[in-house]
Structure formats: structure tokens, C-alpha cells
Amino acid sequence: METFLDTLISYGFDDRAAVSAYRAYTTFLLGQLLLEVSARGASLSSVEDELPEKTLRSLSSYPNLQRMQKQLSEDHSATEFEEALESLLDRLENGAPR
User: Where do the Tetracycline repressor TetR C-terminal domain residues begin and end (predicted)?
Assistant: First the structure.
């Protein structure tokens, strides 16, 4: 995650744009992985299943994560999904044969 953010920043992304790109990428990747897993018949566990206890780690070795921690922990998933879906539908409409 640190390397991903560092690469985006090295290509001129500011913190806000880097967080947005990271979220878009991971959303796409996780969606694709869920489709693949379900297509292979794997059972998906319920959200209510007990998760292992989290171990907190220091971010001192991860300057980008440390600086962007607040932005990365904010949940804008509903809005991001709506905007991404609208964008996809617009692109499909603009590319559709008339």
C-alpha cells in the first residue's frame, strides 16, 4: 500500500488524488476477485462471522500511510460507487452505436 501510494505521488498525484486512485483500484480489484471466487463456487462467509483480533502496527516506517491515514480511513463508499457507476454508464452511452 505504501509503495502503491508512493508511486502515484512520484507521478505527480497529490494526496487527495492518490487516495482516490487507490480506492478506485482496490474497489475494481476486489470486485473482480469476488466475481472470480463466486464463479468457482466458493462459499463466501457472512459479515457477522467473527474476525481475528487486529494487531496495531506503527506507521512510522510508512510516511505516506501516516500522512494520509485520516483520508484513507474515511468511508465514502456509497458516494464513490454512485459516481463510478454514473461514469461507467456515461462512457457506455457515449460509446454505444447510434
Answer: 1-93
> How far is the C-alpha of 31 from the C-alpha of 28, rounded, in Å?
5
- Taking the model in full, what pTM does it have? 0.71
Q: How far is CA 39 from CA 31, 32, 33, in A?
A: 12, 11, 10
d(CA 90, CA 96) in angstroms, rounded, equals 10
> Along the 98 residues of the chain, how does pLDDT read in single tens digits?
999 999 999 999 999 999 999 999 999 899 899 889 888 887 766 666 666 777 888 888 999 999 999 999 999 889 988 988 899 899 999 986 65
Residue reference for cell 509503495: 3
